[in-house]
Amino acid sequence: VRDSNPPSSEVPTSNLGAMEEDFPEFEPFEDEVQPRGFIPAGEGLMVQQVDMCQQQNKPNHYTTAYDTGNLVVRRGQEFVVRVTFSRPLADGDDFQLEFLIGSNPSASKGSLVVVTFNSRHSGPWMGQILEMQGESVLLGITPTPDAIVGKFRTYVAISAGSGMQRTKRDTSTDLYLLFNAWCPTDAVFLPDGAERSEYVLNDIGVINQGSVGAVSSRNWMYGQFERGVLDACIHILDASRMPIFNRGNIIQLIRKGSAMINSQDDNGVLVGNWSDDYSMGKPPTSWTGSVQILLQYANTGVPVCFAQCWVFAGVFNTFLRCLGIPSRVITNFNSAHDNTGNLKTELIFKADGTPDRRNTRDSIWNYHCWNEVFTVRPDLPNGLGGWQVVDSTPQETSDGHFRCGPAPVAAIKEGLLCHPFDCGFVFAEVNSDVVYQKRDRYGTLTPYRVDKTYVGQCIYTKAVGSSATHDITHTYKYPEGSADDERTMSRAEEYGCARDHSEVPETQLSVTISCEQVGLGHDVNLAMEFHNQGDVPRTVQANLAGSVVFYTGVIATHFKDQPFSVTLCVCAAEESVMLTVTAQEYMPHLGAQLCLHFVVTGQADDQSLIASKVVDLQTPGLQMQVSGSPQVKQEMVVTVTFTNPFSFPLQDVYVAMEGPGLMNQRSHLYRVIESQASISWSETFLPRLPGPRRLVAVLNCRNLHQVTATASSLHFTI
């Protein structure tokens, strides 16, 4: 077989696009001198049928759920093909299977694989004859555990005297080859069976949001097995112009994926938008999952509008799991952002103690979502394999592209920031010191407080086998202030992450702020506790600042400044102050953001104090009810109902629902829902997959966001 190496200027980068002609049906041997021609029918061996044995292969490879007409298998593991010849095999018959991927397939690049079944030398994939029954032969093929991942074309070629006689191009024999978390020699091998079921096979997820002390969650439909999604994920690699021969390398593939999920510099999948203007697309809060986003991108080639961090993470998780890579979505609460490689997040205040918003450049996100993938790291020292941080939200460039990772979680915990990729950036996100600076009239900054525990307070992911929250903070950092933590921070500083060493005066005054959960449209009651540990009375001149903020910590609208004073007695005196922020004060300023940020600052002689509180406003819920017999291919009905509890009408209300394995996304638009009015919307569906399933619905409009419902106690039988 020829090894058709393409010239370097024609690197093969297309897997799913229109293929160049593969090998001809008859290819003469180059060293033959006899006349060349076809062997007459009936005298030679010919192929009558090629059966990819999907019913046998898919369960063995855990790929039954993929909604595609083609075989899907995992590398490093045997699959079988049944070939029916024109007659039983005889001694001396010579045939081979050929698997080709991309244009200009090349044996030396791994994109052309020849599998033989006799003593003749084969390619890297192993082949064996498992069974012969008359003209039917069952063949076993085992791809290498580092084989290229993508869509292969399959041919059977027979030695026919002067050349090789091949089967015709037949798209029904194409097969998809994926990474294999079940194979001990694959780079993504995951030893624990329950974790494989969760991190590779689960097509529904829970993404944590909210703020510390008020963590919320939203369901996200990954849908990696839905029709067209696997092709869409391969299309992303094609659109990236990633060479075919690199697509078996886990590190290169996930770095390319991290760059391509955002559109920042490579026309990738999603356009980020952290404003309140979504007029050119859909608000990030309106998505129910990844499927519609990936299909829209694959069908149009145009980046999809719009996304924020949890959307980037949800779609990236679909991409990874679809290709067989164990992955999960992570939420870091109080996530430091854009720290220019140091460990200092500087918040600047004016001389009177009020926030200096114009001169504050750093920000702390209420939460930030990224992904982890599980893989070995042969390029790094022992102990740095396992979970790796990857982030597709465009924040900073890495080697010229907006991407992040894979950064070993173990390296983050130990402060080993000398290793690739982007360890320093991730380390700062979870370990920055918050430095409170006071700015005088001349612009001079003076630090007056340093908080070393605020950033990265908790890091969560979905628990294995349930919708519960799993705290994985300990995998990223040692307990704050412990000897191990100090060792990690010192090591990080040795690798160039500058820490804060400000000497700030000790203060005898402090304040805390608390608030119960608040429903959208209700008043906010803030409780402030002032403490005096000194031996002289103090009068604090205080101020409460209130803003509507994006979850990134950036202020959307500042709506309140309320000065007040508090007199504190001596001997550990405490004084409580209650302040109410009415709904009329904040409601006119809300957009897509339902997050309020309150900062209490105070000054007493030479002492300054500060406390802050994030309040996530709770939205009303949808109601979702499913009726019918929970059986595969038996029609069922789902009904979504909603009552507008507000005193104002809701305009242009978009409602959508979907459930992987149950129904594709359906949507409905209501022009207006008047105050106290109700809607009811029903859809029928035919369940495709058995087992536990979930439906999710979302309601979104210009003056109400983040309204969701879930039907989760559904278990379907065959």
TrEMBL record:
PANTHER family (UniProt xref): COAGULATION FACTOR XIII A CHAIN, PROTEIN-GLUTAMINE GAMMA-GLUTAMYLTRANSFERASE
Region named Disordered: 1-20
Protein family according to the UniProt entry: Belongs to the transglutaminase superfamily. Transglutaminase family.
The Transglutaminase-like domain, residue ranges: 301-394
Cofactor(s), by name: Ca(2+)
EC primary class: transferase
Name of the featured protein: protein-glutamine gamma-glutamyltransferase
Enzyme Commission designation: 2.3.2.13
